[in-house]
UniProtKB/TrEMBL annotation:
Record carries keyword Iron-sulfur: yes
Signal sequence interval, chain numbering: none
InterPro entries: Aldolase_TIM (IPR013785), Elp3/MiaA/NifB-like_rSAM (IPR006638), NrdG2 (IPR012840), Organic_radical-activating (IPR034457), rSAM (IPR007197), rSAM_sf (IPR058240)
Cofactor(s) the record lists: [4Fe-4S] cluster
NCBIfam families: NrdG2 (TIGR02495)
Organism: Hydrogenibacillus schlegelii (Bacillus schlegelii)
Keyword Endoplasmic reticulum attached: no
Keywords: 4Fe-4S, Iron, Iron-sulfur, Metal-binding, S-adenosyl-L-methionine
Pfam families registered for this protein in UniProt: Radical_SAM (PF04055)
Protein name in UniProt: Anaerobic ribonucleoside-triphosphate reductase activating protein
Record-annotated Radical SAM core domain positions: 12-229
Length: 233
């Protein structure tokens, strides 16, 4: 469900002045999640109607509304909320783990989303570390196919942790989910709010590791991604 609104972000929709909407509730339990507070459904800190009023007041100063979580596609009122945001003239950027491909397809078909960032957690055979449902990898791969066929710009993100992720597993994940127009390798950073830094790592991902991994992907899986970007390293 809707949880809160951050009135200004320079990071959540790169290149755009954005407000960030947070939803609560997620079926994944990722040790490296930086919004662990929002994994379970929580009462909203403000009503969604208040968020829409604040967004209406900021028209002309903001360009975009980035919707993140939690898993936003679990919120049953998300289509109506995004329709109201679009009616205010905003660009909409959606973060998702690909857990509800049917809901994602509906949002895209209705023109409610302008850009999608989808997080892939790991190689498919390792998804049991993050989601108890064995069907989760199938749903994620279906969501990637939905994005490919939609015509809506998107990127696939993989957060690379020091302790959980092996380079070979990342390569398997990239081959499994591709081809994609842009693959983003994100550095993990332990910080307040991370679910389980003792499992994911107490140190940030070394930039050299991301660079080496990018070089391996370009050399060993060149058809999987048109571009490979490093972020946060």
């Amino acid at each position: 469900m809707f949880y809160d609104l951050l009135p200004l972000s320079l990071l959540d929709d790169p290149g755009h002045l954005a407000a960030t909407v947070f939803t609560s509730g997620c079926r994944f339990r990722c040790p490296f999640c930086h919004n662990a507070l929002l994994q379970r459904v929580r009462p909203p800190k403000m009503p969604p109607q208040t968020a829409l009023r604040l967004l209406a007041e900021r028209r002309g100063r903001l360009e975009s509304v980035a919707v993140t979580g939690g898993e936003p596609t679990l919120w049953k009122d998300l289509p109506d909320f995004l329709a109201a945001v679009k009616a205010l003239g905003y660009r909409v950027k959606l973060d998702t783990a690909g857990d509800r491909p049917d809901a994602l397809a509906d949002l895209l078909a209705r023109g409610l989303v302008d850009f999608v960032a989808m997080d892939v957690k790991d190689a498919p055979e390792r998804y049991g570390r993050y989601a108890p449902d064995p069907r989760a990898p199938e749903r994620v791969r279906t969501a990637a196919a939905v994005l490919r066929e939609s015509g809506v710009p998107y990127e696939i993100r993989i957060t690379v942790t020091p302790k959980l992720h092996e380079d070979e597993a990342i390569l398997r994940a990239v081959r499994w989910i591709g081809p994609v127009p842009r693959l983003v390798l994100q550095a993990y950073r332990p910080a307040p709010g991370v679910m389980a830094p003792e499992i994911a790592g107490t140190e940030p991902t070394p930039p050299d590791r991301l660079r080496r991994l990018r070089a391996r992907i370009l050399a060993e899986a060149p058809a999987a991604a048109t571009a490979v970007e490093l972020r946060g390293g």
